[in-house]
Amino acid sequence: MSSETILSLFISGFWIFVWLFLKRNGLLPFLLIYVPAAYLVGWGLNWLYPWLGTVIIIVSHIGYLGIKSIMIVLEDKKNKTQQ
């Protein structure tokens, strides 16, 4: 298998994970705004620097999911302490 095939399989699997995560947390509508914006930036950079665009797409999504999951946990703790 070539490196492009492995990378495309990784990205496809990553998107399945992102979709399931956002669906579980009720954030699926956000996917319609965030994903096209990240891909436009990534594709623009891919044209100039082929690997940089892909790295930015992956890192931006992982970073967003990490921040959003931390915010969900903090909100749950806040709700539990108020009860």
Question: Keywords, please?
Answer:
0% strand, transmembrane, membrane, 3 helices, transmembrane helix
Q: State the end-to-end CA separation.
A: 55 Å
Q: What helical percentage do the residues reach?
A: over 70%
Strand tally is 0
Biggest pleated sheet: none
Percentage of residues in strands? under 5%
SS-based structural class? mainly alpha
> What integer value in Å does the Rg equal?
16 Å
The arrangement of helices and strands along the chain is HHH
Transmembrane segments: 6-22, 27-45, 51-74
Keywords: Membrane, Transmembrane, Transmembrane helix
How would you concisely characterize the structure shown here?
By secondary structure, the chain is mainly alpha-helical. About 90% of the residues lie in helices and about 0% in strands.
Helices, strands, pairings?
Layout: H1 3-24, H2 28-48, H3 50-82
Helix pairs in contact: 1-2, 2-3
Overview of the molecule:
The protein is mainly α and 83 residues long. The protein has one domain. Helix content is 92%, strand content 0%. The protein is built from three helices and no strands. The radius of gyration is 16 Å and the shape is elongated. The relative contact order is 0.10. The mean pLDDT is 71. Keywords: Membrane, Transmembrane, Transmembrane helix.
